[in-house]
Amino acid sequence: MTEDEIYRTSTQYRLWSFTPETLASLRATTNAAAADGVRDAFRNLDLKTSESENVQENGAVDCLTIEEEQKIVDYYCRRTLDFVDFCEYPTNVKATAVQYLKRFYLTNSPMTYHPKEIMPTAVYLAMKSEDNFHYVKSFAEKLPNITTEDILAPEFLLTQGLRFTFDVRHPFHGLEGGFMELLAFTNGKGQGGPWIQKSPKELREDMMGIDPAPDSSTKTTTIKELVSRIQNAHGRAKEILKTSALLTDAYFLYTPSQIWLSTLFLVDEPLARFYIDTKLPATAEIKPKLLTVLRSCAEMLRSSPAAQPDKEVKKEPKRIDKKLAQCRNPQKMDLVGMNKAQKRDPDQDGNGLDENVAKKRKLEREESMKESEDLFGPALSRQND
User: Fold this and answer.
1) HSE (side-chain half, CA atoms, 13 Å) at 253
2) Which H or E run contains 236?
3) Of 20, 101, 135, 221, which one has the greatest count of Cβ atoms within 10 A?
4) Which candidate, 352, 339, 358, 340, places its Cα nearest to that of 113?
5) Cβ neighbour number for residue 154 with a 10 Å cutoff
6) pLDDT tens-digit profile of 281-334?
7) CA angle 209, 210, 211 (to 5 degrees)
């Protein structure tokens, strides 16, 4: 099987890859369903207009828009990056945690589950998925005003939102492999495709003759300068993968190989073109399409304000969070309480369960006990000696 065929069997490709249109449609559906749920919840509570700033004169709740939902999720994705960096966890934990958040909020709304409550759980689950396990107690100690229950309560909810798929294919390994190949060309050991009739040393000469890097006006004249150029491109590309690639929709719209090639395209296009030329002949029909995809992905990474938001962008989360406080679904706010209620038979009297659910379970227990008595007879009473 080719690498492409292997990737197409992954859950990331089958469940978490979209076109821009289907991604926008999914978010619109999620927003509409959550808004309806919020309005129904407020209607059931029979709240008065004066009790909520976001309840308008006609009784409708001013819910978040699709754009506002995306902005508040993006904000907590940035918070996730900062928190993981503070804890000095590996890059793969950081990248996986952010993708868990982004995946969860494709089918769940911040109006239903606040990102502030899901974020710690996403990091904790990412640590386990990426084989960087820490005890939940020691993890909770790194977060102010957070208990172990706060972290564990949404865990099953999060795994449901992830559709029980924990594997995230990142572009980091592809980046490292690609730059190892580029460095091999500088050593006169690089190999091109079977259609290339040049020796490794001739390929190195071709590499020396490519156009200058974007931040330079002169061509590289020595192998040392060429190695330095590749190392510089590697560092800048890796930084993009750790920021813009995580905070945009790149993982939903492009494959890991397309993402890392796009970062190389973004930081040093002549170097990227040389690398692609060693992989695909000029006559390959797929080559123009690939270059179009890489330009599209590179433009997304370049134009994203998520990685380095300006002052206006930083103000938006505060405004949205204030609005969110008035339009959260009141039935879904206590995740710890919900988790206790959903556990099987918290106690014999049904404490912690909804009253109707408790009555139903109590009736089921009584019927089960009656059936066992019909089969085996009543329990034997202990007689005094």
Assistant:
1) 21
2) helix 223-241
3) 101
4) 339
5) 25
6) 989 999 999 999 999 999 999 987 655 666 666 788 999 999 999 999 998 888
7) 120
CB 141 within 8 A of CB 235: no
55 three-class SS = strand
Q: Could you tell me the two tokens for 42?
A: 């407020």
Closest CA to 114 of 337, 341, 320, 339: 320
DSSP designation for 35: H
CA distances 181 to 32, 49, 274, 276, 278, Å, are 48, 65, 12, 12, 10
Element (H, E) at 319: helix 311-327
Angle at the Cα of 77 (from 67 to 137), degrees rounded to 5?
140
Alpha carbon distance 9, 334 (integer Å): 38
Alpha carbon distance, N-terminus to C-terminus of the chain: 77
pLDDT digits (tens, 9 = 90+) for 257-290: 999 999 999 999 999 999 999 999 989 999 999 9
Non-local (6+) Cβ contacts of 206 within 8 A are 198, 274
Q: Report the pLDDT value the prediction gives residue 339, as an integer from 0 to 100.
A: 83
Hey, which residues does 220 pair with through a beta bridge?
A: none
- Contact between 252 and 17 (Cβ < 8 Å): yes
DSSP state string for 186-219: HTT-----TT----HHHHHHHHHTSPPPTT-SS-
> What does pTM read for this prediction?
0.84
